Description:
Number of strands: 24
Low-confidence stretches: 1-53, 55-62, 396-403
Helix content: 25-40%
Oligomer: single chain
Radius of gyration: 46 Å
Number of helices: 6
Distance between the termini: 68 Å
Amino acid sequence: MKIHFVAIVGLATVLMEGCNGQPHHSHEAHEEVGEEIHEHAHTHLHDDGGRHHEGEEHEHSQAHADEISMNHHQIEAAGVAVDVVKADSFSTVIRVSGKVCPLQGDELTVVAPSDGVVTFADASLTAGTAVGLGETLAWVSGSKLQRGDAAQQAKLVFETARKELERAQRLVAEKIMSVKEYEQVALHYETAKAAIQGMDLTGRGTSVQSMMRGYVKQLLVRQGEYVSVGQPLAVVAQNRRLQLQADVPERYFKHLHEVNGANFRMAYDEALHKLADLNGHVLSYGKTVVGGASFVPLTFEFDNVGDVLPGAFAEIFLFTRQRGNVVSLPLKAITEEQGFHYVYLQVHEGAFRRQQVTLGQSDGERVEICEGLAEGDRVVTHGAYQVKMASVAKAVPGHTHHH
């Protein structure tokens, strides 16, 4: 017992002398040190936990900072539509330029039947006016010419031939005129009769008629202009079928036999026309380069059921072989900013996020997505511009206070 007691006393003395050499404060110092260690440990744990919590909040706030929020009314007003990305087949596309042309025999040139001055039947007749079969487009009158009006001259010839025929009929009945002579008189009458067909015998001149139903493609003369017999006056076109001629660079010549369809967009219109919807098909393709211009012609034929203007230039998307497992989106789903392309993903209901993508080939309606999307992503396919505007509005800094 004495040994234990001495050991305890010695240990107490060492502890008292080890706290800054001040044994009379040993108890208080020991308590202070213990409290400091406890407080330090508590503070350390609290700080670590706080940093971990702040990190989570930062990541969470950063994720939300990238989101574009739109309420139900904004989404509905903008017409936002979302589709799920799914890989599918997509044609290899050759993008070229070309021209729409009328079919051979689908146009008719109307010519002057006689010499004279042109007077249009309708003063408002212009290119694009619809005309019917046998409709009078103009009159050609020679009444002011020195030799007189052809219609009036033809009328006189016809009246003379009619009277001669009546006289010949009496003579042949009385056997005074031979049958051969009568046939000659009858032939002269029929010729004179044919000459006045289509002529206006009231003084307006010789009528110029359209020999097909269609529309006036081009007027080649002006009101009151003098014309000679056989001179072209107008071009009338039916355009029930049209041709699309693509100028294909010669480097694609080996792929021409693979072309199976096309889309095209006229230079004057943003509408996309699909040959598949216009009963279109490949008509032919050239085997030589045209005029040293390094182009090979490829011709399609299709129904003219839309507002397609023959003679106008077009942007053409030629389809060749099909490729599988291709992700594509409608062109209207793509936005562009400083040369980069973006789409908008739906994160959850009412929230969207901008996603950069790399584009591939386009058929004029859809575009291939090479990078940036995966199957199952929910992408804004209609109203992407409105979502972009919502993100711009969100990015505008508001008034903040710093305390």
